[in-house]
Protein: GroES-like protein
Organism: Mobiluncus mulieris ATCC 35239
Amino acid sequence: MKAAVLRDPQEGLRVETIKTPRPRSREVLVKVAACGMCHSDLHVIHGKIAFPYPCVLGHEVTGEIVELGSDNDHTGLKVGQKVSGAFLMPCGQCSHCAEGRDDLCDTFFNLNRLQGKLYDGQTRLFGTDGEEIAMYSMGALAQYCVIPSTSVAVLPDDIDLVPGAILGCAAMTAYGAVRRGADLRFGETVAVVATGGVGSNIIQISKAFGASQIIAVDVADDKLEAAKQLGATNVVNSTKEDVHEAVFKLTGGKGVDVAFEALGRPETWESALNALSDGGRMVPIGLGAGVQTAGVEINRTVRRGQSILGSYGARTRVDLPKVIEMAAKGYIDYSRIVTRRFSLEDAGKGYDELAAGKIQGRAVVDMSL
Ligand SMILES: NC(=O)c1ccc[n+]([C@@H]2O[C@H](COP(=O)([O-])OP(=O)(O)OC[C@H]3O[C@@H](n4cnc5c(N)ncnc54)[C@H](O)[C@@H]3O)[C@@H](O)[C@H]2O)c1
Ligand SMILES: [Zn+2]
Ligand SMILES: [Zn+2]
């Protein structure tokens, strides 16, 4: 099959022919329809976050099940089903998974995120000469990918598979931030700092959960304009306005109950913290490019009873089906968020545009192109 392989950050992605993988116990083989292009991939492509090479990235996928591995009787999964695959692939066995905390799965972090393998300690991807190729999540920048059965959810027929690729990371991460990180309540006020792929979904999901005010903060006017279409009630361009002043003015001097941060830089942490009300919750989902730190004003946090509630992905097994339901019912307008489609061959160019801040919403690799 064809796959976009990363051998060296200096070279970038290169499409190669590698062996078509086979699913093992409690796994499925998916023929990829589309794969979303996430900012997290950029950290690996640029060599900022350590990951074994060669590897295949791509962790936000839709496609059709074409083969079941053994021991799938209990899953209800069948060949021919259209599915969404989530980046956060819980093992279902560790103590965190047993408590329902898929987002903390030790096996996923230790074997997949650190070593690029699945849960028998081996990769499913090999070059034609037998060379091992690491998998970032399921390695979906390819014609086929193997996904643990815990991490796929069946899609209704009316979900459009190509833009639907974003459900497995951008939308699910946003759902996790709103439902789990913030535990957002009807009528609360919200700021969303950085309205890219994930931030755009946070806006829509906050609206669906009943946020009374949604203030989008970004550095690009076109992205802020798009944010309004998705449900932002106000926008702040942080290159033109002071975020604290603007948000406090918009909220009658109070600040917001919840400030989501969706980029992972010191300046976006600062913007989110500066938007908070007394007792407010700051929910960061942005990942830094390697080890990064951000400043937190000690006395303000203490005296004003503010919290910082990190949120990674969501609880895949229960949350991915909810995300799909929200998309099917129109609460998540995933088609509107996807503004660009690239062929697998042009995936590298797409990531260059993402790195340059030129992608509004989300871009996807469409395997039919
Ligand atoms: N926690 C998780 O589970 C999880 C999952 C997916 C992605 N991520 C991380 O979330 C972050 C966002 O990913 P994405 O794919 O949405 O990124 P993206 O590239 O699509 O969007 C980034 C946005 O930030 C805006 N921006 C740039 N500088 C800014 C600034 N100073 N202030 C405000 N906005 C600014 C850009 O204009 C753009 O709209 C990344 O760090 C990614 O690694 C985390
Ligand atoms: Zn992602
Ligand atoms: Zn686990």
